[in-house]
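WARN  no MSA supplied for this record, continuing single-sequence
INFO  ligand: 5-O-phosphono-beta-D-ribofuranose
INFO  echoing inputs
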Amino acid sequence: MKVGIIMGSKSDWPTMQHAAEMLDLFNVPYETKVVSAHRTPHLLAEYAESARDRGITVIIGGAGGAAHLPGMTAAYTSLPVLGVPVQSKALNGQDSLLSIVQMPKGIAVGTLAIGTAGAANAGLLAAQIIGTFDPTVQAAVEKFRTEQTQTILDNPNPAE
Ligand code: RP5
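INFO  complex generated
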């Protein structure tokens, strides 16, 4: 049972590594791969169509600019696909966000925020999805949330 983290380019890794780091926190296994909707379209089809049989349960797709990777992945598999809009240089990721979020009815992509917060939350959401059938992962997510809350409660003074 693995998460597949794919991205349109190696240049997306500084963003997408935040998804991987979140999954590390919960001991959720994952694989990472560069798969481009435009530059390697046949690889994208092959990756998405074989994902379930290879033990993938959730796919996280990150891309920037004309970010068709998550939507095309969702077109090829009924596994849940989470889309991360990578912050592009030209348009600050607004282009990536709109490319990913505006899916036509009938093919779903769960779109996260632009950039590193979106990538981290994609990892978190993937763990939450897996937690619905894996009590160990669910317990790890609950622990993370409890500790996060407690850290804030223990540090109320912003100037300290
Ligand atoms: C997209 O184009 C990638 O997801 C990346 O965010 C963007 C730029 O790619 P590179 O030119 O850096 O390879 O396909």
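The two ends are 43 Å apart (CA to CA).
INFO  checksum written, moving to next record
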